């Protein structure tokens, strides 16, 4: 299974179809494409997936704010045509454009004009994001590598790190729940919150209708998994799991997660069914 992946519809390297084909090659039985703030990738392969040997679940990864921190919430198995979901997706698309304009304005002040036009051209039909600004900077020889673009200009705490345009956690969680989906806190340890602040995040998330947390996200240590297992147990959260696959890298995880549900915990996938009615076994 794998309930956290990205395609070229956002910042992944593989097209949605290539991503599905690789999932089949890896014998993944249940799968979600969770592109950033868009379901375009999922929609482009929803019909084709019916002829494949896997169950495709609708998915998205929403960007939001909580207590001054940018947090990601994964939505799974929701009705992508629901009015709340459509309105939310439209709002995030505009937020990304507004954020892109702000990033471009900051880069212009640093001596890099026309960044917005360049990044939009790099993005094409994908959701506009910082990787597209990085690609444009590389193409224009403003930087020698993508890593340099993030290290100097676009990474956390740098001029291009613009957060203020994201909606609140409670809003995006409510969109997912209204559309009949399951809201999941993505990679909770990446936010580097204290134990007490993480539990406050979970409390606010649950109050908004959220119900699950990623027990596995990409490559992580056994200690990290143990921390998240305790969090799920103590806070009565269901568990999800995903590779957070974007592209083939030395350090990144490949598609697919093998996980036996720990005793006393519930998985998000035990009640999933795809658009053809195929159900996902609670034993996977």
Topology:
Blueprint: H1 16-25, E1 30-32, H2 40-45, E2 55-57, E3 59-66, E4 69-76, H3 83-109, H4 115-123, H5 130-139, H6 146-154, H7 169-178, E5 182-185, H8 195-207, E6 212-217, H9 222-235, E7 238-242
Parallel strand pairs: 1-2, 5-6, 6-7
Antiparallel strand pairs: 3-4, 4-5
GO molecular function, one term: 5'-3' DNA exonuclease activity
Pfam families: PHP
Domain Polymerase/histidinol phosphatase N-terminal: 1-66
Question: Care to describe what's here?
Answer:
- It contains 9 helices and 7 strands.
- The chain has 2 domains: 16-89 and 166-271, Metal-dependent hydrolases (TIM Barrel, Alpha-Beta Barrel); 97-154, DNA polymerase, domain 1 (Orthogonal Bundle).
- With 284 residues, it is an alpha/beta fold.
- The longest helix is centred in the middle third of the chain and has 27 residues, at 83-109.
- The strands form 2 sheets. It has a 5-stranded mixed β-sheet with strand order 3-4-5-6-7.
- It starts with 15 loop residues before the first helix and ends in a 42-residue tail after the last strand.
- It is globular.
- Residues 1-66 form the Polymerase/histidinol phosphatase N-terminal domain.
- This is PHP domain-containing protein.
